[in-house]
Design goal:
Layout lengths: L4 H18 L4 H11 L2 H7 L9 H13 L23 H11 L1 H10 L10 H15 L3 E7 L13 E5 L4 E5 L8 E7 L11 E9 L8 H9 L6 H16 L4 E3 L3 H11 L5 E7 L7 H17 L3 E6 L21 E9 L2 E10 L5 E4 L2
């Protein structure tokens, strides 16, 4: 289907917004977004994606994947992820268009079938204290974690990583013991909350589910995860490769599930008694259309009221539970990811704001 002029104008506005707001720290992506916004042919490429996935970062990831695959083309010289050092210049739009024409078949295949899956383990710097808080609050130190929209399931390895929390005066560390090939995740701890103790809790059961699950043993799937990272951020890229290597050694169970809630219900029925079940999602809800989101909330509410399930959600603040007031932000922080808890007491749903954080876990402000 050929997109209408109105549809192209809408897509162009999305790319200009992405350049102005979402990727300002990456000069290549700013330049690429502006070039795409000015090219009806490039915009028409994104129109190949399903409506729920038609976001600028999906096209950017598809382009990046082709570069990481080793396609010989001048566009690669702009990408630091493959050693490119050329800065965006006046020739970039034409180079981009030529690349897209040559790789159109592969790009369209990605846009029609892939989704943006960063599987950012930096969020585990917030997930770690969140799990500790849940164990302390429920009095159940043995936890069972279900990662809703888990991609490759790398966040299921939250207890495989080492964390360094930086404060105005000194720092403190938590997580697995430091090791040469173990990811070390640094996170700025904002506010005056005291450091958390290690605590006596452990993950006994863990599983992920995703409509487009990533197999960590599949080299092409691993490359897609790398493509979803921005090419200038070599620190995140190195951390991803460490996490993937760990996951290959210690595979986590990740289900390919068209309906992740069905998979959750089945898993809950199979859990041994005495464990504290937790369903966790991070930057997943904004991909759901309004009816699917409403249905998810309704089904999870029923599951929480039927048992002791706790819902831990890390999403944009506008997707917080209805009726939950926005908590204050620490000075200098920018509203980004709000971590919330929902559970049931005596059949009545309860909710709490747990933390603010950077979307990739670079900082957190503990609220609980």
């Amino acid at each position: 289907m050929i997109p209408t002029a109105a549809a192209l104008a809408d897509l162009a506005a999305r790319f200009r917004h992405f350049a102005a707001v979402e990727c300002t720290q990456d000069p290549l992506y700013v330049a690429l977004c502006l070039a795409v916004a000015d090219s009806p042919e490039m915009l028409a490429l994104l129109a190949e994606a399903p409506k729920t996935q038609a976001h600028p970062n999906l096209l950017l990831a598809a382009l990046h994947e082709r570069v990481l695959a080793g396609v010989a083309h001048p566009l690669a010289s702009y990408y630091p992820s493959v050693g490119g050092q050329r800065m965006p210049d006046a020739e970039l739009p034409a180079v981009l268009l030529d690349f897209a024409r040559r790789e159109r078949v592969s790009l369209v295949a990605h846009l029609r079938t892939r989704s943006t899956q960063t599987n950012e383990i930096g969020r585990c710097a917030v997930l770690w204290p969140a799990l500790q808080h849940i164990a302390a609050s429920t009095g159940k130190p043995e936890l069972a974690l279900f990662d809703f929209g888990s991609s490759a399931g790398l966040n299921l390895g939250v207890d495989d990583y080492r964390y360094r929390y930086l404060r105005a005066k000194g720092c403190f560390e938590a997580g697995a013991l430091a090791a040469a090939q173990r990811p070390l995740i640094e996170c700025q701890w904002l506010g005056s909350a005291p450091p958390l103790s290690v605590g006596d809790w452990r993950l006994v059961e863990r599983i992920g589910a995703d409509p487009a699950a990533i197999d960590v043993q599949d080299a092409h799937a691993r490359r897609w995860l790398a493509a979803c990272l921005w090419p200038h951020d070599r620190e995140r890229a190195a951390r991803l490769q460490q996490a993937l290597a760990l996951a290959q050694q210690r595979p986590r169970r990740v289900l390919q599930a068209d309906d992740c809630l069905d998979a959750l219900e089945d898993w809950l029925h199979e859990l041994p008694s005495g464990l504290q079940p937790i369903v966790f999602n991070s930057w997943v809800l904004h991909y759901l259309d309004p009816s699917a989101l409403a249905q998810m909330r309704q089904r999870l509410a029923a599951l929480m009221q039927q048992g002791d399930l706790v819902w831990l959600s890390a999403e944009a603040p506008q997707l917080r539970p209805a009726g939950l007031e926005l908590p204050d932000l620490a000075e200098g922080a920018t509203a980004s990811t709000l971590w919330t808890l929902q559970w049931a007491e005596s059949g009545a749903l309860q909710q709490r704001a747990l933390a603010w954080s950077h979307p990739h876990g670079r900082w957190l402000q503990w609220l609980a």
